[in-house]
Each structure stands twice: as C-alpha cells, then as structure tokens.
C-alpha cells in the first residue's frame, strides 16, 4: 500500500494520524511512542492483515542504519504497551513466528475532513475561558 503521508486511521479507541505523526485515544489524549515505534505502527496499520517480515520492517523503519532484531522487538513491545495489548491473545500486533508481525485489529481509514484528533471532546464542560 502506497501512503501519501496524510492517512488517518481509527481502530479500537485509537486514532493514528500518519501526517501529523500523532497517536491519540478517541477522547483526544495523546499516546506516547518513540519515533521508530510510531513509524513501525504506521506501517503495520497501513498493511493491516498482512504479515510484514522482519527484514522489511528493519529496512523501512531503520533505512540506512544497521540495527538488529532487538531494536525491532523493542519497538513492538513499545507499541503493545502503548495500545494496552499486553496479554495473549494479542488484539493488535501479532507475532508470526519465524516471519514477522501482523496488525490484526479492524481499521477504518478516516477522511481528511473528518479528522478525529483535532480537538479533545469537552462533553459539556464549560470553562471560564468560554465566557471571555
């Protein structure tokens, strides 16, 4: 799948904005990920349902840098922790033994005009700043 950098994906209570490089919960609260873990998550989500090989992930997430599989495994652990995917069976990132990793959650591609992460919802809370 070729990406234009503007994709926004929604899945299981999260919104992943590839262009803005943001991962947020639906309530707007940010989810922290390192730059490499974020890049890996974008690749996995963009190719959801397909197994991405370790070699392909290393090539695409760490271009022109020599790193080992340990870096890959650390990024997967960070992604799983950020998404709360800590128990078996995995809800988001599954390991395919001897091959690589696969993003298994249902994903919706959100249109540019309907960005879900623009503003956190207030749910009826009025602040003093609203009056001025």
| Major beta sheet, strand line-up | 3-2-1-7
Query: Which CATH architecture is right?
Result: Orthogonal Bundle
What structural class do the secondary elements suggest? alpha+beta
User: What is the 3D form?
Assistant: globular
Q: Please give the largest β-sheet.
A: 4 strands, antiparallel
Our count of domains comes out at 1
Sheet-strand content, in percent, reads 15-25%
CATH topology: Arc Repressor Mutant, subunit A
CATH superfamily membership, which one? Winged helix-like DNA-binding domain superfamily/Winged helix DNA-binding domain
Q: Secondary-structure element order, as H and E?
A: EEEHEHHEEE
Poorly predicted spans: 113-132
- Highest-level CATH class: Mainly Alpha
Q: Output the number of helix runs.
A: 3
Number of strands: 7
Q: Between the first and last Cα atoms, what is the distance in angstroms? A: 47 Å
Helix percentage: 25-40%
Radius of gyration: 16 Å
Brief rundown of the structure:
With 132 residues, the chain is of the alpha+beta class. It is built from three helices and seven strands.
């Amino acid at each position: 799948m070729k990406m234009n950098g503007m994709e926004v994906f929604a899945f299981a209570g999260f919104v992943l904005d590839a262009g803005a490089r943001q991962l947020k919960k639906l309530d707007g609260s940010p989810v922290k990920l390192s730059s490499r873990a974020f890049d890996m998550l974008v690749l996995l989500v963009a190719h959801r349902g397909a197994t991405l090989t370790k070699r392909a992930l290393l090539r695409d997430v760490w271009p022109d840098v020599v790193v080992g599989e340990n870096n890959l495994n650390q990024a997967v652990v960070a992604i799983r922790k950020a998404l709360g995917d800590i128990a078996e069976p995995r809800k988001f990132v599954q390991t395919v033994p001897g091959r690589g990793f696969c993003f298994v959650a249902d994903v919706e591609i959100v249109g540019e005009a309907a960005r879900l992460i623009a503003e956190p919802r207030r749910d009826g809370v009025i602040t003093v700043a609203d009056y001025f």
